[in-house]
Amino acid sequence: MADQKLLEKINKLREEKNAVILAHYYVDGEVQALADYVGDSYFLAKLATTIDKENVILCGVNFMGESAKLLNPGKNVILADELADCPMAHMVEIEKIEQVRREYPDVAVVCYVNSTAEIKAHSDVCVTSSNALRVVKNIINKQIFFIPDNNLGRYISKMLPEKEFIFHDGFCHVHKSITKEAVEKAKEIHPQAQVLAHPECTGDVLELADFVGSTSEIIDYATESEAETFIIGTEMGILYELEQRNPNKKFYSVGHRQFCPNMKRITVEKVAEALETLEPKVIVLDEIAKNAAKPLQKMMELAK
Ligand code: SF4
Predict the structure, then answer these.
(1) Which one of 3.90.780.10, 3.30.230.10, 3.40.50.10800, 3.40.50.2000 gives the CATH number of domain 88-172+286-302?
(2) Ligand 1 binding pocket mutation candidate from 44, 58, 61 (most atoms within 8 A of CB)
(3) Which bin fits 262, alpha (ψ -120 to 50), beta or left (φ > 0)?
């Protein structure tokens, strides 16, 4: 439990500094509890555009701060911990994108939002885990280079046989650590439970799932479902929101290794410090920001 005095300090600073605190579902529950809004990365970045506050404190990893800055260039976006970084967000080289473009001149480069602003700037269209299928279906190009996440790309490719996919080998180590064997074992222990998995999991895990969806889709599904027990195949931080919304249902993670060490860097103390100093601010260079905004804009058009 967070220290009461510290929480009072945060509440006072939040007012004084005209700030809003946004937290991702994967940060610790006590950070989610003090946030003004909790959600997935793109939801938070978009939400910030509707909030009349000068300072946005982002409790999540670097690429989320960049997305928030790209959509809110006139606001200060401050990271609760600038060392919280997502390895997958860097898992494609610009040279690789250029090489694929040379080999496949008609290709559309589709970039999962879990990537750096620089990678987005070299892409044609962005996708989130919830809109990837709809967006890629609406792209006119037949050939799709899907970056950086291999698992999400393969998952949607199965539903789009009319497209020709070129996959990349990026992955989220947290979702990759969830194995088919561990899901089978969890099902043996909780035979009545439904398995809900994120599409960043490997294909053999997704085959065992009763439902595959983004973090917010998993939360909505579990909340609306008549089932009472669920095995959760994504980062464990999501259990906080699931339990808040569904106090009478039971949620189990597949195993004990499902936590993202970068998301867990964010602490209540660091949120207080970020509010106090309003540092470190996210900076995206103008040239990168201009080019990274285009694929995000394209995503919004194609997701309609
Ligand atoms: S859970 Fe995976 S995709 Fe999300 S920030 Fe951590 S490493 Fe990156």
Answers:
(1) 3.40.50.10800
(2) 61
(3) alpha
Concatenate the DSSP letters of all residues of 258-272 into one string: ---TTGGG--HHHHH
DSSP tally for the chain: helices H, then strands E: 15, 12
* Ligand 1 center to 102 CA (angstroms): 30
Q: Is the CB of 201 under 6 A from ligand 1?
A: no
CA of 86 relative to ligand 1 center, distance in Å: 5
Kindly give the confidence (pLDDT) of every residue in the chain, 304 residues in length, as a single tens digit, with 9 standing for 90 and above: 678 999 999 999 999 999 999 999 999 999 999 999 999 988 898 898 999 999 999 999 999 999 999 999 999 999 999 999 999 999 999 999 999 999 999 999 999 999 999 999 999 999 999 999 999 999 999 999 999 999 999 999 999 999 999 999 999 999 999 999 999 999 999 999 999 999 999 999 999 999 999 999 999 999 999 999 999 999 999 999 999 999 999 999 998 889 999 999 999 999 999 999 999 999 999 999 999 999 999 999 999 8
Extract the tokens encoding 110: 């589709």
In this structure, the residue with its CA closest to atom 8 of ligand 1 is 86
Asked if 107 and 278 count as a contact pair (C-beta separation under 8 A), the reply is: no
**Entry pTM:** 0.95
- Do 178-253 and 88-172+286-302 fall under one CATH topology? yes
26 lines ligand 1 (CB under 6 A): yes
For residue 232, what are the β-bridge partners? 196, 253
